[in-house]
Amino acid sequence: MQKNFLFLGNPGTGKSTLINCLVGKTVFQSGVCFGGGLTNFFQKHTHNEAVYMDTPGLADRKLKDKAAAAITKALRQTGNYKLFFMVRLESGRVVSDDLATIETVLDSIDMDDIPFSIIVNNVKKRQYTAMMKKGAEFFKVVALINACKYSTPYITFIPTLERLDEMDNEFMQLPREVETFLHHNAPAIVIAPERVKEIKLTDFKMLVDDLKDQLELLRNDNAALRRQLEGLLQKPKFFETLLNVVVATVAE
Q1: pLDDT digits (tens, 9 = 90+) for 72-122
Q2: Average pLDDT in the 40-46 region?
Q3: Angle, nearest 10°, between helix axes 204-220 and 136-145?
Q4: In whole angstroms, how large is the CA radius of gyration of the chain?
Q5: Which value, to the nearest 10 degrees, does the dihedral of the CA atoms of residues 36, 42, 47, 48 take?
Q6: Residue 241 to residues 73, 121, 178, Cα–Cα distance (Å)
Q7: ∠ CA(191), CA(107), CA(54), 5° rounding?
Q8: Does domain 3-245 have CATH number 3.30.70?
C-alpha cells in the first residue's frame, strides 16, 4: 500500500523546506515569501517508496479556495497516511490559524479518531530550551496546541537550524531525533478516497476568531488551563506517549 507523508500548514511554516530535507534535494520551492506562501497547488514527490505531499495553506486569503481543493485532492490519493500539521510558536503563543487548519481538514475526513502529528517548527533557542525541560511552560504549550476539538500527543519541536534559517531552496540532513519522529513515531491511518469530503471554508474566519479567544483564555486563566490539561489526562496514555516522542534535538 502506498505510504503518504502529507504536510499541512499555513504560509511560512516550513513545509516545503522540511520535505526537501527529508528527500535530500530541492524538489519543492521554499524560502522567504512576503504576503503569501510559495506553494499554491498540490505537489508530490516519491522518495524511497514513500510519497511526500506538499499543500498550500488555508490561511492564505488569496489562495484559500485553491488550497482547500489541493488538500482535498491530496487526501484522496489512496494509501496509508501520516498527517503532519505545522503549528507556529511565536513568543510562546500558538497561532490560531494553524489550529483552525487542523480542525477544518480533519472535519473533512468522515472517520473517527483520526491519528495525526503536529510539528512545531523553527523554534527559537530560548523557547526550545524551555520546551525540552518539560516543565510548566512545556505543558502549557501542549495544552494550547490541543485547544481545538481534535487532540494528539504526537508532537515534535524542531529548533531553528542555522543552515536553513531564512534561506531559499536549502536542505540539510535533519537531526536524527526529527527523522525518527517523522518516519517511526508518527502514527498512520488508511484513508479511503470516498471518506474525504470537500473542505468547507464558510466558517473558517469565525473558527480562527473563536480559537484565538480560546487560546487567550488558556493563557490568562489558570483554572481554564488546568481543566484543559485534566481533559488531556483523561485520554489513555496521552502524556506517556507525549513524553516518549518529545526528545531533545541537537541543533546544527
Answers
A1: 999 999 899 999 999 998 887 999 999 999 999 999 999 999 999 999 998
A2: 81
A3: 160
A4: 17
A5: 120
A6: 31, 20, 16
A7: 60
A8: no
> By C-alpha distance, which of 35, 42, 32 is closest to 8?
42
- The x, y and z cell numbers of residue 24, run together, are 535530500
Give the pLDDT band (50/70/90) at residue 219: very high
Do 192 and 78 contact (CB within 8 A), yes or no? yes
Average pLDDT over residues 218-238: 97
C-alpha cell, 22: 527529508
74, burial (CB in 10 Å: exposed 0-12, middle 13-18, buried 19+): buried
DSSP state of 198: P
- CA-to-CA dists, residue 65 to 37, 102, 103, 133, angstroms: 14, 16, 16, 40
Assigned C-alpha cell, 40? 499554491
Cα 228 to Cα 78, 94, 225, distances in angstroms: 35, 15, 5
Q: What pTM does this model have?
A: 0.91
